[in-house]
Amino acid sequence: RNGRLHLFVFGFVLLGCLQVEAATKKYQFDVQVSNVSRLCHAKPIVTVNGMFPGPTIYAREGDRVIINVSNHAQYNMSIHWHGLKQYANGWADGPAYITQCPIKTGSSYVYDFNVTGQRGTLWWHAHILWLRATVYGAIVILPQQGTPYPFPKPDNEQVLVFGEWWHGDVEEIVKQGNAKGLPPNTSDAHTINGKPGPLFPCSEKHTFAMEVESGKKYLLRIANAALNDELFFAIAGHNMTVVEIDAVYSKPFTTSAILIAPGQTTNVLVNANSAPGRYFMAVRPFQDVPIPVDNKTATAILQYKGIPNTVLPSLPQIPSPNDTAFALSYNKKLRSLNSPNFPANVPLKVDRKLFFTIGLGKSVCPTCINGTRLSASLNNITFVMPQTGLLQAHYSKMKGVFTLDFPDKPPTPFNYTGAPLTANLFTSHGTRLSKIPFNSTVELVIQDTNLLSVESHPFHLHGYNFFVVGTGIGNFDPAKDPSKYNLVDPPERNTVGVPTGGWSAIRFRADNPGVWFFHCHLELHTGWGLKMAFVVEDGPGKDQAVRPPPKDLPPC
C-alpha cells in the first residue's frame, strides 16, 4: 500500500510538472538609428537594439509576451506582430492609424499579448511608412512543453529571414517616387538574415553561413520580410520537406524549391545527407509580368562541419523568375495537416459572401509627371488613412473618422481579367470599412483585374487565420468554381498569394472583435491605397468584446 501511495504521489507530481505554467517573456525594443555597411557602402538605418535584422522573439504556446518599444529614431514608429491573433486585443496589433497612433520620437509603448492556440514561425515588422525595410525580425513560438512536433524531431533549428536592401535612404527614395507619381526605384539587393552573400561586391564578410553535420536533420524557419518581392528559395544538393506555413502545421511534401510571398512564413526540414561540402542557399524573385523588379540572387552557405572555406559552393537549380507553372503547382501542394490534434475547422456554411476586385489605376496629381499618380483600389475604393486610430474611434464611438459602407462587391461588374483596361481608371477615395457581425462566417473572393496590369498580390488579414478554399486563373465563376473548393484540408494562413490574373477564395469565422486591417503586403501597393479594414462587432459573452485600451496608448 505504501508503494502504491508513493506511486500516486510521484504520478501527481509528474502531472503537476506536465501542467506547464505559462511564462511571461519580456523584451525591450530600442528603436534607434545605427550605421550599417552593405555593398561597399555604409548608411544610417533604423534598427531595433542596433541589430539588423532585429532580435528574434522566443515564446511558447500559452505564454504572455510583453514588449516595451522605446522610439529614439526621428520617425514615428509602430510595430506589428504579424500573424498573432491578438484576441479582443487589437491594441497590441500595431498597424499605425488602424489599431493605434504611432509611437512618437522620445516615447514608449508596451505591446502586451498572450500567445493562445498558436505555435510555429511568425515575424514582426514596423507598420508605418516603409520602415519595415530594416525594422523586422522573426517570432519563434515553441509548442507547449512536452508536446512534440507532428513531424520528425530536428536535431537543430535555424531562422532565415529574407529581406531587401537599398543603397540610398528608403524613405527619401519613396518620397521622390511619390513626388513624381511613379514607383520608387527597386531595391539593390536581396538579403538572407540581413546579408546579400558573395555574389555581390564587398560581401564576402556579409554572407550568412550555417554549419551542419552529416546525417543530422535541420528545421529551417523561413520568413519573407521583403517589401515588394515574392521569392523562390532553394538549396544546392538538398531537397526540403515543407511542414508548416504561417505557423500552421501542413501535410509534409518534398520539394526542390519553395515560393514565399511577402508576409508569409514557411518551415522546412532539411536532411544533411549530401556529400560533405559547401552549398549555396539562394533566393530570387518570382515575377510573371513585365514589371521592374530587383532580379538579383541573394545567397547564404550551408556548410558541412570540417569542410574548409576554400571549397567553392555550388549554386542550386532555382525556378526561373517567370515560372508560373512552378508557382501554381507549388501552392496546390499546400494543405492543412488536419489531424485529430490539429484539425482544420473550415466553415462549411457561409453567412456573408464578399467579392473584392483589385485595381491598379491613376489619380489626378497636377505636380506629378503626366499629371497623374499611380493608385490602387479594392472594389474601386482607394483607402484613405485616418489621422486617428480606427480601433480607438470604434471603441469610443467617435464620429467622422470612418464610414461603415465598404461595398460587399464592386460597383460595376466587368470582364476582370480580359484585355488590359485603361478607361475609367479613376477611383473614389475614402476611409470606408466593412462591418461583420460577431461569430459570423465569411467567404471573401479576391479577384485580380487587368486594370492597368494583372499582377500577383499577397493579401494579409490582421487578427485572423483563414482557409484558402479555392484559387484559379481568370475570372471567378460563382456558378461553377465553388464546387471545386477544398473544404477538407485547405491551407490555413494569414497571408494569401492571389495569382496573376486570377482569384483566391478564403473563409474565416469572425470570432475576434475589433478593427482588423486587410491589405496587400507589397509595400508599394499598400501605399497606393490597396487596403481596407473590417469592424468585427463585439459578441454577447464577457470575453467577446474589445478590451479597454491600455493607459499608455500613444496619443494622436
Automatic annotation (TrEMBL):
GO cellular component entries: apoplast
Keywords: Apoplast, Copper, Glycoprotein, Lignin degradation, Metal-binding, Oxidoreductase, Repeat, Secreted, Signal
Domain Plastocyanin-like: 31-145, 158-306, 405-538
Any one GO MF annotation of this record: copper ion binding
First-tier enzyme category under EC: oxidoreductase
Reaction it catalyzes: 4 hydroquinone + O2 = 4 benzosemiquinone + 2 H2O
Cofactors: Cu cation
Signal peptide segment: 1-22
E.C. numbers: 1.10.3.2
GO biological process: lignin catabolic process
CDD domains in UniProt: CuRO_1_LCC_plant, CuRO_2_LCC_plant, CuRO_3_LCC_plant
Record's keyword annotation contains Lyase: no
Family to which this protein belongs: Belongs to the multicopper oxidase family.
UniProt-recorded name of the protein: laccase
